[in-house]
C-alpha cells in the first residue's frame, strides 16, 4: 500500500470539485486509486463495494477487459479525427450497434460528450424539427418539477431542482413545468411502480390549455427520475403523457441518461415501460462511464425531416469537437460487447425481485420514511434532522464509505444503483453494511 499512499497528492486546493462540499472533502479526503469489478480501492488501501455504479454509469463493473483493451488499441491506432465533414469507421459502427438495441424506429444517433449535452442537443433538435416542419411557432419546452436534465442552460431550464437553478438568472424563456409525481402519503413503501398518480399527467393538458399546443415543441421527462432521489412513474403515467403529446403534436423526449443501458432490465426504459418517445437522450452507460460520451436517439421521421435542401449544405447546425471521438467510440463498442456477452442489458430483470426484497427489509431501520425501487435502482428516504436538512443522509454516506460501501445521497435520500454484474452475495453485503449504518450511526 505504501506506494499507493505516495501517489496521493499533498495539496488538494487547486481542484475546485464539482457537486462537492469542497471544504469538508479537503479536510477528510476520500480518494479512489483503483477499481475492479464491484469494488473500489481507496487511497488508504480499503475495498469499497460500489453501490452506485460510480455515478450511475459503470453498468458493466470496473476495469472490464474488453473495454480497457478497445481503448488501448484505439489510442495507438487513430487518436482523433475531426468530427465535422470527416469521419472514422468506429463512430458509424457504434451508431449501427446502438440502433440495433434501441427501441424500434429509433434509427439515428447524434453523439455528444455527456448527459447534459445530450439533453441540450435533444432540445435543439426538437425546436429545429418543429421549424423545418413548418411549425416554428412551437418554441416552448415543458419539463417537470424535480426533474434533472444536467447542468447546461437548456437542461437546467427544463429541470426542476431548485438548488440547481436558483443561482443562475432567468434561464431559458418559454419553459413551463408539470408537477412531479412524488405522493408519499399514498405511495410510501410501494414495491415497483406506485398505484396512484397517473392523473398527474393530465396537468400537461392544463399547460396546453394555458399556452396553446401550437406554441409547444416538446415535453422532456426522465422515465424514472434519478438525481432528485428516485421517483418511480405511477402506473399508466408515462402512457398518458404519450397520449397527450401525440394528440397535440408535441414531441416527447425521454431522458434516459441513467435508465439507458440495462438499468431496469431492458436496454432502455422505453422498452421496459412499453412507451415510445420521439427522442431519447443517453450518456453514462454508453461507454460504461470510462470515456465521456453521450448519444441522442431520434426517429427516422425526425432525422429525415432535416435531410432537405442543397446536398452540400449542413442540415443541422450543431455538434461538438469530440462528437463520436475515436477512443470514445472504441470504448462504446467494447462496452456493448461486454453487455452482449454477459447478458447485462437484461440482467437487472432477473435480480430485481431479490434486490427489492433486500431493499425493503430495511423498512424497520430508524428514521426510514420511504423506500422505492425499480429494476436495479433503490432509494431509502430518511427523516431529516430537525433544522439540518441533508445532514442525516450525508452522515450515512460518510459512515457507509468508512464501512466499505459506496452509496449516493441527494437531500435526505439514499440512492442505490449498483453495477449490473452484482451477485446475490454482493447484494447481501450491500444491505448488511447499509443496515449497520442506518441502525448504529445516524
Ligand atoms: C437524467 C439525467 N440527465 C442528464 C444528466 C447529466 O449528465 P452529465 O452529468 O453526464 O452531464 C444526468 C446525470 O446524472 C441525469 O441523471
Distance between the termini: 31 Å
What is the count of structural domains? 2
State the low-pLDDT regions, or none. Answer: 1-6
- The helix content, as a percent range, equals 25-40%
CATH architecture tag of the largest domain: 3-Layer(aba) Sandwich
Classified by CATH, the class of the largest domain is Alpha Beta
Total of DSSP H or I helical runs spanning 4+ residues: 17
Strand runs, count: 15
Give a short account of the largest sheet: 7 strands, mixed
How much is the average pLDDT?
A: 96
- CATH topology descriptor of the largest domain: Aspartate Aminotransferase, domain 2
Rg from Cα: 22 Å
SSE topology sketch:
Elements: H1 2-6, H2 22-27, E1 32-36, E2 39-42, E3 47-50, H3 53-56, H4 65-77, H5 89-101, E4 108-112, H6 115-132, E5 140-144, H7 153-158, H8 162-165, E6 175-178, H9 184-187, H10 203-211, E7 216-221, H11 237-248, E8 251-255, H12 269-273, E9 279-282, E10 294-298, H13 300-306, H14 326-342, H15 344-360, E11 368-374, E12 377-382, H16 391-402, E13 405-406, E14 408-410, E15 413-416, H17 424-441
Parallel strand pairs: 3-13, 5-6, 5-7, 7-8, 8-9
Antiparallel strand pairs: 1-2, 2-3, 4-10, 9-10, 11-12, 12-15, 14-15
Helix pairs in contact: 4-14, 5-14, 15-17, 16-17
Bound molecules: pyridoxal-5'-phosphate (PLP).
Pyridoxal-5'-phosphate is lined by residues 114-116, 119, 148-150, 222, 226-227, 255, 257-258, 283.
